[in-house]
Amino acid sequence: MSTGTRAAARLAAVALGASAVLVTLAPAAQAAVVNNRVTAPAGMIAQSATATCPAGEFLSGAGGGVIGGNGDVTLTDAIPDLPGQSVTVWAHANPGAVPGAYDVVAQAICVPGAPPPGYQVVTMTSPGNAVAVKGQFAACPAGTGLLGLGASLQGGDGQVFYRQIEPNPALSGGTVSAGASGGYLGPWSVTAYAICATPPPGVVGSLRVSTGPNNNTSPKAQAAVCPNNSLVTGVGGAIAIAGTGNVLISGALANQAQDTATSSAVSDGLFLPPWDLTSYAVCYG
Known about the structure:
By secondary structure, the chain is mostly beta strands. It has a single domain, classed as Proprotein convertase subtilisin/kexin type 9 (Jelly Rolls, Sandwich). It has 1 helix and 18 strands. The strands form 3 sheets. A 6-stranded antiparallel beta sheet has the order 1-6-3-16-17-14. The N terminus is likely disordered.
């Protein structure tokens, strides 16, 4: 049994009300990360994909990404749906761009077993106006902890780029922030989704943070790794303030072993100032 599977078993055992006995998971249950990759043909302005947790597992985090697009396609939404146990991801072509074929990946990060007590999603939306940079914090209720984040942009249509999808170190909530690209003066807003629950006794959460080099290389990818015997339940990413409105987060995804989170980012055209990329992994074990 892998270390990620052992962590999932611990979380599932107590969530199901089992005594201190660990659940032995069948091999089919070891793949608790569900990806759905949808190809958008060349010239497609917007595309979506939805991934759903299998029966017997609950949604802990929302991941998503754009593969291809060459910086001409913006990740706009990674929306968790707790009633449907699914994640829907949208991408939108940047204004004036005629993108080639690109892929949109929706990722449902799932944990085997029944949801722990206090399982809920907190949704908070910023004001809808033309302020160029804005952020929104979503806080978990007292007595619960953050499992994972989701994010959504309203308005902008490819002219607003994420800067942060960032869990806080206390795992009590997370911040989603974004910035408008140069010349965009229309109204827009940003929504943060915090998936929260009360961790079972003996299951401890931690945030792993990894920041890459500060330079003008594009695109970039950065990985954050969970400790042994723990499981990725949520993912996130952030770019340096210098890249706001010029660099877009193109993805934040967990690996199939569910022990590593990788974020990716790309500049919108030629952007010479240096910037860095940070990856976040919410880990429980």
